[in-house]
Amino acid sequence: MSEIIPIGPYHPLQEEPEFFKLHVEGERVTKLDIEIGYNHRGIEKLAESKSWDQVVFLVERICGICSTSHPAASVNAMEDAAGINAPERAQFIRMIVCELERIHSHLLWLGLAGHFIGYNTVWMWSWKYREIVCDVLEKISGNRQSYAMFKAGGVRRDILDEDIPWIRSSVDKLIPALDLFKGAVMDDPVIHARTKGIGILTEEMAKAYCVVGPTARASNVAIDVRRDDPYFLYDQVDFDVIVLGGGDVFDKAAVRILEMYESVKIIKQSLDLMKPGIVDLHIKEIPPGEGIGRAEAPRGEVYHYCLSDGSNFPARYKVRAPSYVNIFSNEVACIGQQVADAALVLAAVDPCYCCTERLIVVDNDTNKTREIKGNALIQLSHQRTEEIKKSLGIS
Amino acid sequence: MNLKMKALTKSPWVYHLSTGSCNNCDIEILDCLTPRFDLERFGIQLVGSPRHADALLVTGNMTLKSMPRALEVYNQMPKPGVVIAIGTCSLGHGIFDGSYICPKTVDEVLPVDIYIPGCPPKPEAIIAGVAKLLNKLAGK
């Protein structure tokens, strides 16, 4: 008997509405349908009615979590079209903001993943330490989210010299917190049992579905735009691209945790390498032509394309975001999993997911519908953690 | 003030409804619940179903596709309930003004009780807005 469990489109936790239909037989997931588009806001069309400066603000609001990666790719595209390079100090400031955002995004994901498997302590802790990053971003840009730092030809605000020691000490505070998470996630037997071997995306499937970012790097596909096609001044700093081979939820978590250490490394090096100088070229116009920009968002590669006809507005603007390719890898990662694991597997690619608000089980044979209240999927997941705890003898 | 309203102002449970937002406001709403701001000390709790909720926190642009869903969620919420519009997008359309996919603002679809502006509003602003609403409902 096959049943369909629709997840979404609204959800208790957060983020965009997305709609997943899980086809299940008993406890096993046999097929997954994905329906998105609740969040379509016509951004590419809107971009054609905004001036070049406004476009950066617009793409910043594609996603609040990646609110620096989109502007990063956007200014890369514009500077590519204009054939200019931003001043060195501006490039370092951009890198600092980008890496701070990567840490905040990964901590955010880690917290939500902790919530999904019933470890609310991990959620609260990781969001507590995320506040450190938010404070630094507030100091640099004036806002906790949507920093409005980037513009074609530079950045809008300089980092003040008197702030740098404080920024450095705040970033240092992150290291003990990261050690805590590394210990909590890597050594915990329950988290091992819940995530090891769950939702495996093999290397060939990762390549077939063209996944990017941590999702690919956990499946032994070593791609990272920062290393492969350096933008800003990523070629001047030293960092490792974390690659693991398992492809399961555990490796996806581990890749993200280890990446945060690399981000801290990059921030510190950027602060060291930053020399006094101008931060904005004040460019007046983008000459006719095409430009492409790539950037490594926390979730993978962001790609922006702009076409300029010499006027004040882009003639065409195109965006490709990483989640769009990553979400569809769930089609293979979910198959054969238990329903209780499905929420975790869907969340593991960090797709700005979370849609467990209404959960209706439609029985295909009798066509009867019964509605399960609230966040039943998450409760199922919590129950499974409890069972594993019992079997391991941990209370 | 009737009994229902009194109960509502004591410990409002909120349900978060994103109608096509960019996640900014949604993160800040969640941020309100985490240790630094800790809304739960006021008895405010995020719940997983609109059927348990006293207040809807609406964020976003109200895109065409999410409009019927948002109405459905509002109808599922027990009354009396309040609707709180959070963020510039749900007040007007903000930067998305003129988009073909969002013909209506949130307050043209749902009866909004209070607006919290900002892109995104800081957690302090969200807490202040909710506190003001509770005071108003309590008749203070």
Walk me through the structure.
The complex is a heterodimer of chains A (395) and B (140). Chain A has 395 residues and is α+β, with helices and mostly antiparallel strands. Chain A is built from 15 helices and ten strands. Helix content of chain A is 47%, strand content 15%. In chain A, helix 2 (52-60) runs antiparallel to helix 3. Chain B has 140 residues and is α/β, with parallel strands linked by helices. Chain B has a single domain (9-137), classed as Rossmann fold (3-Layer(aba) Sandwich). Chain B contains six helices and five strands; from the N terminus they run H-E-H-E-E-H-E-H-H-E-H. A five-stranded parallel sheet of chain B has the order 2-1-3-4-5, with helices on both faces. In chain B, strand 1, helix 2 and strand 2 (45-46) form a beta-alpha-beta unit. The radius of gyration of chain B is 14 Å and the shape is globular. At the A-B interface, helix 1, helix 2 and helix 5 of A face strand 1 and helix 2 of B.
Quick recap:
The complex is a heterodimer of chains A (about 400) and B (about 140). With about 400 residues, chain A is an alpha+beta fold.
What descriptors fit this protein?
heterodimer; A: alpha+beta; Cytochrome-c3 Hydrogenase, chain B; three-stranded antiparallel β-sheet; 10 strands; 47% helix; 15% strand; B: 140 residues; alpha/beta
